[in-house]
Amino acid sequence: NTYYDNLFNKKGFNEGYGPGCVADYFRDQSSGLFNLQFDIYGPFKVSNNAQLSGANYGDSAVKEALNQLKAIATNDFKVYDWNGDGEVEQIVFVAAGFCGNQVKGYVWPNTQYAYFKAPGDLPIGMTSISCEMWKDSSLCGIGTIVHEFAHCLGLPDIYPVGGHYFSAVDEWDLMDGGNYTI
Q1: Which of 63, 73, 65 is nearest to 44 (CA)?
Q2: What are 119-161's pLDDT values in tens digits?
Q3: In this predicted model, what pLDDT tens digit does every residue of 12-53 receive, in sequence order?
Q4: I want to staple 18 with a disulfide (CB 3.0 to 4.6 A). Which of 60, 98, 136, 141 is the partner?
Q5: Are 59 and 31 in contact (CB under 8 A)?
Q6: Separation of alpha carbons 13 and 27, rounded Å
Q7: Which residues lie closer than 8 Å to 13 by C-beta, 6 or more apart?
Q8: Is the whole-model pTM more than 0.70?
Q9: Residue 74 confidence (pLDDT)
């Protein structure tokens, strides 16, 4: 998918939803020391309906998409084992539709330890899932993707997760409300 390849990898990419691509964000924040190249697979159509009741963290959709990926993958996923421990470090998913933190029943963007296998039967360390659109049907851009990927790198949320309606530093920090600004 050209749009998602651009969103993740094309230097300077901007369609009004942020100051560059996902890789640009990490390259800029690290002063050029962390250079990523994302491989894009899909889209994959999954059978479950986004309008599930209760918390929806996308587990069944991730599992189904991974099974579809395994059916077509021909490259060696060991390349995604950055530290040689026999585990793919992380896989990033973008779910079609709205974000569950804005529209009830859709996938809530999240990052979690994975209980799935990548192509080649390699364990996956973490999966992150972001969504395609905000509740006004505009595209999400890179903000939530980089927020969730940063969890894969070990950064915690700094917004209050206990139900409070204020934030620590809001849009000034990616791990607070800053994902809504890029």
Answers
A1: 65
A2: 989 999 999 999 999 999 988 889 999 999 999 999 998 887 7
A3: 998 766 679 999 999 999 999 999 999 999 999 998 765 555
A4: 141
A5: no
A6: 14
A7: 6, 7, 20, 21, 24
A8: yes
A9: 74
pLDDT at 87 over 80: yes
Scan for tokens 């997760």, then name that residue. 161
Looking up tokens 């940063």 gives 150
The residue whose two tokens read 């060991």 is 78
